[in-house]
Design goal:
CATH topology of the largest domain in chain A: Nucleotidyltransferase, domain 5
InterPro entries (chains A, B): ATPase_NBD (IPR043129), DGOK (IPR007729), DGOK_C (IPR042257), DGOK_N (IPR042258)
Helix content of chain A: 25-40%
Strand content of chain A: 15-25%
Structural class of chain A: alpha/beta
Largest sheet of chain A: 6 strands, mixed
Keywords (chains A, B): Kinase, Transferase
GO biological process, one term (chains A, B): D-galactonate catabolic process
Number of helices of chain A: 9
Largest interface: A-B, 49 and 49 residues
Oligomer: homodimer
Radius of gyration of chain A: 20 Å
Protein name (chains A, B): 2-dehydro-3-deoxygalactonokinase
GO molecular function, one term (chains A, B): 2-dehydro-3-deoxygalactonokinase activity
Number of strands of chain A: 14
């Protein structure tokens, strides 16, 4: 293997992914591990990094650029937030406290309504690198879904929704766990859930318990219960995010199942959305950060 | 101690409370334990009952009347649901599978929207026994808050809200746990949270993450964060339950802190509410069930 010119790192709460890169942006090799920031104390980051890609570093110091929760207060070292409106990639990278040459991309913050993102700014930069001149709204589904208004290369404003984490907490830490299996899907139940809270978001508070009560009284199918919960939560998010997406060009980051659910739910509202591969836009964003740094 | 004529049992998910009773409804002695239904398998109920009040039974068989989750599918034995509209106390008690003479009060069910209650029906009966001829709406705050429309001695309809369980799941099993302490209270933050979701329930989905983001960006006080979460959730419940309470006579069951929060939030909407002691109405309901049984 040829020596990488630099290393791209996507270091989130639950995963670490690294790419050995050539200077021109070509991927030499890709690796992943489950050494997410959530598992590591401050002393654990450097060993985790060496364990995954120590051999890439054998021939001397290789610059690395990292994005994600590695830069959170509970991460390796806190990387500041750049305040919107601003371009997604701030040039002010933060050096990790290590002999390794690791630079962390800052997150974005918004004072009012108070909001933060960390990792998604790199995906937004990557989406813009792959779609030059794009204006509109980007939806980044996940534990804490983000909606970002992007114009003229800047993030103008954004909002976070705890949709993914709510789904996990409700389906595993409340009475709904008795009625919601880990797998199974029912599109009609999902669509009905989306429609219910998108048009009547105030129903959310009472609709949740009906999932349990329907099971007790009518023996509702687990797949339908699971899909209905997902639909209710995504419908409530789309209702609250309507000022973002209504009448806008929409991009959804994430080619997997979750991104497709958002595209489906938006489509039912007559709002077509472009879907982009999450890993691809992350890597494109890290490459954009590398280019910005080497040309600075 | 004189021998009880009967024993009243309030057997919920987390607690067991028993009263040794005279035939005229006088309390001879009261005891409690933490042997809630949530901790017990099917074989554990009888030993838990004997452990708490075995000496009350020394002189022979004493009839017992129980309400609560003891009658759930995961409880001692499943007591049916009576379907609303109906009086809160169905005369069709269910015998527990035991040498002890334990009769369990059925819950209430509603086919559409699917809903169930178990334990609250006894509190409603007790409230009506203490307030004869009362018509209006009863709010029973808790893990699964209930709103019941009561008229002419019957429960006409009801709705459940997972407000209490949502508070617990959000504050201990999501990222909000980093910002929400176990104790602390800020009335202004509570009031503002209630007002926000009561008038704009669609904001709930986005307001939750602001609790975390405010802490990260502005170092928000824990007491304010905790009170804001409570306010947002109760405001959303009041918004969804508005068709129940608007313009109605309102009773709130629960004299403790949680009941007072509901009374405060309703008061801010110009809706005065009567507050009743939860234990007192439970006992009054169990006495009503005893009287109904002995006069049947």
């Amino acid at each position: 293997m040829s020596r990488p010119d630099w290393i791209a790192l996507d270091w989130g709460t639950t995963h670490l992914r690294g790419w050995a890169m050539a200077a021109d942006g070509t991927v030499i090799e890709e690796r992943g591990s489950d050494s997410g920031m959530g598992k590591l104390g401050p002393e654990g980051f450097e060993p985790a990094l060496r364990a995954m890609c120590g051999d890439w570093l054998d021939h001397g110091s290789v610059p690395m650029i990292a994005c994600g929760m590695v830069g959170a207060r509970q991460g390796w070292t806190e990387a500041d937030y750049a305040r919107v409106p601003c371009p997604p990639l701030s040039p002010a990278l933060t050096r990790a406290p290590s002999d390794l040459d690791v630079s962390i991309i800052p997150g974005l913050s918004q004072p009012d309504p108070a909001d933060v993102m960390r990792g998604e700014e790199t995906q937004i930069a990557g989406f813009l690198a792959l779609n030059p001149g794009w204006d509109g709204v980007l939806c980044l589904p996940g534990s804490h879904s983000k909606w970002a208004h992007v114009s003229a290369g800047e993030v103008v404003s954004f909002r976070s929704f705890m949709t993914g984490e709510l789904f996990a907490a409700l389906s595993t830490h409340t009475v709904l766990r008795h009625s919601i299996p880990a797998e199974g899907w029912d599109e009609a139940a999902f669509d009905a859930g989306v429609a219910e809270t998108l048009s009547r978001p105030e129903r959310m508070a009472s609709a949740l318990f009906t999932i349990r009560a329907s099971d007790i009284l009518h023996g509702a199918a687990g797949a339908a219960a699971r899909s209905r919960l997902s639909g209710l939560l995504i419908g409530a998010e789309l209702s609250a995010a309507k000022p973002y997406w209504l009448g806008q060009q929409i991009g959804v980051i994430g080619a997997g199942g979750l991104g497709s659910l958002y595209v489906r739910a938006l489509g039912a509202q007559g709002a077509p959305a472009t879907q982009a591969n999450g890993t691809a836009v992350t890597l494109a964003g890290l490459i954009a950060a590398w280019k910005q740094r080497t040309t600075a």
